[in-house]
Amino acid sequence: MSRVYLDNNATTRLDPRVLDAMMPYLTDRFGNAASRSHAFGWEAEEAVEKAREQVAGLIGAESTKEIVWTSGATESNNIVIKGVTSMYAEQGRHVITQRTEHKAVLDPCKFLETQGSSVTVLDVDSGGRIRLEELESAIREDTILVSVMFANNEIGTIQPIAEIGRLCKPRGVLFHTDATQAFGKVPIDVQAMGIDLLSCSGHKIYGPKGVGALFVRRRAPRVRCRPLFHGGGHERGFRSGTLNVPGIVGLGQAAALTGAEMAADAARIGALRDRLWTALRDRIEPITRNGDPQHCLPNTLNLSVHYVEGEGLMMACKDLAFSSGSACTSASLEPSHVLKALGVADDVAPSSIRLSLGRFNTADEVETAIDQITRAVERLRAMSPTYEMALQAGSLQRRTG
Amino acid sequence: MPYSEKILQHFEHPQNVGSLDTDDPHVGTGVVGSPACGDMLRLQIRVGDDGRIVEAKFKTFGCGSAIASSSVATEWLKGRTVEEALALKNTDIVEELQLPLVKIHCSVLAEEAIRAAVADLRAKQAGGGS
Fold first, then answer.
1. Which of A304, A307, A315 has the highest number of chain B CBs within 10 A, making it the mutation to test binding with B?
2. What is the pLDDT of residue A1?
3. What is the value of ipTM here, to two decimals?
4. Residues A84 and A171 reside in one and the same domain
């Protein structure tokens, strides 16, 4: 039995076509893109600029100068949250974000608070979307930045991005979105959506790890940002450091491929995800889908499999790789802050798993997953005291046939 | 985090999964933890006339280490006296399963379940025997 990888929101397999594009820059074309005096440098620079076009193209950026290379979305988020707030501190020190953000946004925001900024963290509805009227009333005179993720990594919920952009723009508030999960999966248009800053990463779209980008708007308005790294003034001063040329080439190629194949991939992967959901729903009731199916990434399925603990379920599905909503790694279990924000009950949250599909998953793999998960759930429920209690209380219908 | 062979063995083939009649005066039932904490363990023992444990059963909601710890604990209980059962320590389970640090609480839960089951049995016998 070969292993089935259903954890594509954690990371993805490098597309062979991306590796092909990278290889020359790991071998013969090893030049430093900042070397201006010889051909080694020129060809590296040319490759980096082509990648900039590819990434700019995927998000509708007006100019390649708006793309800054980073080590990944965590760095991009840090540059925005620390660098922008530092630069605009005289205008105000208030930042708005929301509860289901990745820690790569929430933790820098917590840091900001220790530096004297104030941060408003918006609640979300039961599907994980912010309420626009709450955002509107949270914006103050001294608000300088709104940071709301494009799509959530655990539940796949897509935020009302264009509407947020429309709220921010006339109020002169910068709008940042961590698009790590949405980038390459759903259409993004920084112009139409009023996005001023956008974080993305290579390894979520079949590109290499350790490379990402930050879109920084240059016109209407021109966004300024204090760098985290000083030293050489690379990337127009936004981010010093010798460029990771092979990684950048890989990210560019990955962006070009996901752009060209987005509609087809989304349709195919969405159908696989829907098959996974309907089959599991029919076979292992009671089961709940977390998130907002109306506004969800096509590849993500977050489930609460009642009366079974998520980590135990992962272990019982030996050939499958997915993740659980919470890790039972200490005396006090740390439940997912995302599920908590949705209002998922404390006794249900540990039963949650995340299945995230990708380009390389096949229909056969999905059937394998359905069979293994179904068998594992039946086995674990047979040893679950809470399942037995529910059966005895008559709150479950005994399965027949 | 890779699991030890022993954990996998007990997780794949758990011993003594099941239930005993909670109303039986010879049965002690211990329930510890809760689903909200991520682990819930129900451990039951049945004693014979000689005071030795003739049967031990469990049902566990939890991770692989919690299920393996339950399985090991119930295996050890069989044939022991109640006093011997109380002498079992969570560290015995840690050693047997080579539980990683982050999973030690699973063995603590098993020890607590044993104590709770014995306490239940004693309460029943004190009540019924007087």
1. A315
2. 62
3. 0.94
4. yes
Give the distance from residue B130's alpha carbon to the nearest chain A alpha carbon, in angstroms.
31
pLDDT surpassing 60 at residue A212: yes
Contact list in A for residue B63 (CB cut-off 8 A) is 309, 311-312, 315, 328
Task: Evaluate whether residue A401 is within a structural domain.
Answer: no
- Cβ contact, residue pair A386, B64, below 8 Å: no
Structural domain boundaries enclosing A351: 4-8+262-392
* Separation of alpha carbons A212 and A56, rounded Å: 13
The alpha carbon of residue B87 is apart from the nearest alpha carbon of chain A, in Å, by 23
Q: What are phi and psi of A102, to 5 degrees?
A: -65, 155
Rg of the Cα atoms in chain B: 14
> A343: helix, coil or strand?
coil
> Looking at the structure, do residues A267 and A227 belong to the same domain, yes or no?
no
Name beta bridge partners: A5: A321
Q: What is the C-alpha to C-alpha distance for residues A165 and A214, in angstroms, rounded to an integer?
A: 17
Shared domain for A234 and A305, answered yes or no, is: no
What tokens does A326 get?
Answer: 């919470």
Mark whether A144 and A36 lie in a shared domain: yes
Where a domain ends, among A221, A238, A258? A258
Question: Is B66 close to A309, i.e. CB distance below 8 A?
Answer: yes
Give residue limits of the domains in chain B: 5-122
Radius of gyration of chain A, Cα coordinates, nearest whole angstrom: 22
Residue numbers in A near B108 (CB within 8 A): 331
* Residue A400 is assigned to a structural domain of this protein: no
Banded pLDDT at A396 (limits 50, 70, 90):
confident
Distance, in Å, from the CA atom of A353 to the CA atom of A294, rounded to the nearest integer, reads: 20
**Whether residue A288 is found in the same domain as residue A240:** no
Say if residue A222 is exposed, middle or buried (CB neighbours under 10 Å; 0-12, 13-18, 19+): exposed
Domain count along chain A: 2
Q: Is A328 part of the annotated catalytic residue set?
A: yes
Q: What is the CATH number of domain B5-122?
A: 3.90.1010.10
Interface of B with A in 85-114 (CB under 8 A): 102-103, 105, 108
Same domain, A168 and A301: no
The answer to whether A325 faces chain B, any CB pair under 8 Å, is: no
Asked if the Cβ–Cβ distance from B59 to A383 is below 8 Å, we say yes
Task: Answer whether B40's CB lies under 8 Å from A387's CB.
Answer: no
Q: How far is CA A327 from CA A188, A323, A352, B83, in A?
A: 32, 9, 10, 35
- Residues A249 and A129 reside in one and the same domain: yes
Peptide bond into A221 cis (omega under 30): yes
Which residues of B are part of the catalytic machinery? 37, 106
Q: pLDDT per residue over B74-95, tens digit each? A: 999 999 999 999 999 999 999 9
Alpha carbon distance A135, A138 (integer Å): 5
**Alpha carbon distance A95, A121 (integer Å):** 9
Closest-CA distance, A227 to chain B, in angstroms, reads 36
Same domain assignment for residues A234 and A85:
yes
